Amino acid sequence: MGPVSMPGPTRRQWLARQASLAALATLGSHVGAATAASPAATSAAASAAGSGASGPAAPLVRRIPSSGEAIPLVGLGTWITFNVGNDTRARDACAEVVRAFFANGGRLIDSSPMYGSSQPVIGHALARLGHPSALFSAEKVWIGDGASGPAQMEASRAHWGVPRFDLMQVHNLLSWETHLPRLLAMKAQGHLRYVGITTSEGRRHAEIERVMKTQPIDFVQFTYNPVDREVEQRLLPLAAERRIAVLVNRPFREGELLRALQRHKLPGWAAEIGCDGWAQAVLKFIVSHPAVTCAIPATSQVAHVVQNLHAARGPMPDAALRARIAADVAALA
Ligand SMILES: NC(=O)c1ccc[n+]([C@@H]2O[C@H](COP(=O)([O-])OP(=O)(O)OC[C@H]3O[C@@H](n4cnc5c(N)ncnc54)[C@H](OP(=O)(O)O)[C@@H]3O)[C@@H](O)[C@H]2O)c1
Asked: Any idea what DSSP says for residue 265?
């Protein structure tokens, strides 16, 4: 990071720049190599790779503020990409994506009862891989009738084949007033490790903000990428202030952002931060925000999951380069 610059033309701009620099200065204390900060992630990468020290370098991690547990900066989403039904070859292809995910040090997989057959497809993959101990399972409860929440969560658990979920989120705030107290009670009883809420595409941010201010949640999930930056104004600073971990969904706008960017040559700055593709540049922009804990891109392809995990390694953009990435992406997308 460069030296602190002189105040800009207005006090407001200068304060914003100081806040950004101060936030980035904390990056070093919250981000670390999994080797140092998270033995679980390290052993997961090594054992899944099956070759110990010769496996890929462990991804960088960030700590969940409520516990101090470290998780890799890039996870795996499953909406659409894992909704492949009963087709055996398609399910096996998803299992290979999950195998590559763990082999490259990944841990957090996100799903929802809303995602069609994704839950049983995850279960199929986990069974094939012998239930990797590195797994950090992130599920959602998504049902209007609060009384039906427990049955839905139990069905999800059976699909995954896990003893309990690490994180349970209220999907799109649906009936959160009923679900959240139950999830917090389940956490207190040891049936869950973390509790969260989600939204996407900029929806209901005022309500998310209210929940973040008033409820003892561990995680929040929303959309953030170089062209969807509204959360920089209130939700990301609030997450940092309230010590709430942040999962970022739709990093590629469901792939649309990458399709637009891939028509353009990668700018020269990409090499400075070790990116050999637009996907990595977009992910590095996202995870270098100090309030972000983990981005969860979805993919159906082994090559893509390897690329995406690679974004959690190597140098990260500083404040000036983050601004440049956002400007370039906005101009090209
Ligand atoms: N409200 C909520 O809670 C909520 C809402 C939306 C999403 N989510 C979560 O967030 C996850 C991610 O969001 P999303 O699935 O909407 O979209 P996304 O991750 O922004 O984009 C997924 C698309 O990007 C493509 N892709 C991924 N990696 C790539 C790479 N390296 N190079 C080129 N293309 C690549 C994938 O195609 P390929 O298959 O060809 O790689 C796929 O079509 C979801 O799966 C879900 O888990 C949660």
From this structure: P
CATH at 231:
3.20.20.100
Cα(101) to centroid(ligand 1), Å: 14
Q: Whole-model pTM above 0.70?
A: yes
pLDDT bracket for residue 32 (50, 70, 90): low
181/212 Cα distance (integer angstroms) = 14
Considering only CA atoms, which residue is closest to atom 25 of ligand 1? 255
Q: Report how many domains make up the chain.
A: 1
Categorize the per-residue pLDDT at 51 as very low, low, confident or very high, splitting at 50, 70 and 90. Answer: very low
In this predicted model, what pLDDT tens digit does every residue of 65-92 receive, in sequence order? Answer: 999 999 999 999 999 999 999 999 999 9
Ligand 1, CB cutoff 6 Å, lining residues: 77-81, 110, 171-172, 198-200, 221, 249-255, 258, 279, 296-301, 304, 307-308
